[in-house]
Design brief:
Elements lengths: L1 H49 L2 E4 L12 E4 L23 H9 L11 H11 L3 H12 L7 H6 L22 H15 L8 H8 L5 H14 L1
Antiparallel strand pairs: 1-2
Helix pairs in contact: 2-3, 3-6, 4-8, 7-8
Length: about 230
């Protein structure tokens, strides 16, 4: 009887010891799991921050963190700057392009048609009034409708004299329409405008012998202006 009692006491003691050891082991495992979970969350959040991502934690009812979700941040792109070039007016409130188009409307449909931009650019660059130059072109060579034989044969616009002579004559021959137009404007610049003769009235006595030349050129100037 005594032996049985001792055996029961020993058995109870061993059971209590085993239970205590089990509780200690369970507590250690729980602590390790929490530490590992914290490390996992820390690494995930750092990785998300370095990739321009937002970490959204998803929790259960008992506030236990489970797998984090990612949401991409959309980056705004700034609109490209639009540079508007300033308006440069060169003559009577018009740009060079507008002036060329205006002169074009007076050049008719013959060989000088469409040469308005060339006349505008040459006149503005050389300080010659573009209306006066165009008026002389139209009056001297009739290019408002059909250009003269001198203009069609030797590209002489404005009745310029010099060499080489057109067909051996006194009037100068040019090699192209553009060269002839530039020659007209150069003549007005070198012999008139650069010397202070910059109006129809001051140009007339030197340019032509006709007493009606001034009034005819002024008529063309107003027609070009109002066209």
């Amino acid at each position: 009887m005594r032996r049985t009692k001792v055996l029961c006491i020993v058995t109870i003691f061993v059971a209590i010891t085993m239970i205590s050891i089990g509780l200690v082991i369970e507590k250690d495992l729980s602590s390790n799991y929490k530490y590992s979970s914290d490390i996992y969350n820390f690494k995930i959040q750092n990785m998300a921050a370095s990739s321009n991502m937002i970490v959204k934690s998803v929790k259960t009812k008992n506030e236990q963190t489970v797998k984090p979700a990612f949401k991409e941040v959309e980056m705004e792109t700034s609109p490209a700057s639009v540079i508007i070039p300033p308006r440069v007016e060169v003559y009577e409130g018009m740009t060079l392009e507008e002036l060329g188009e205006k002169i074009n409307r007076s050049l008719g449909s013959d060989i000088v048609a469409g040469k308005g931009p060339l006349i505008a650019a040459e006149c503005v660059n050389k300080g010659v009034d573009p209306y006066i130059a165009t008026a002389i072109l139209l009056h001297e060579t009739g290019c408002g409708s059909r250009c003269s034989n001198l203009a069609r044969t030797c590209y002489n616009f404005g009745g310029q004299k010099g060499s080489p002579g057109c067909n051996g004559g006194a009037y100068k021959a040019f090699s192209s329409i553009d060269e002839g137009l530039v020659g007209l404007i150069d003549n007005l610049n070198n012999n008139y405008f650069s010397r202070g003769l910059n109006t129809v009235e001051s140009i007339g006595p030197k340019y032509a012998e006709s007493g009606t030349w001034v009034s005819k050129i002024n008529w063309y100037v107003e027609k070009i202006r109002n066209n």
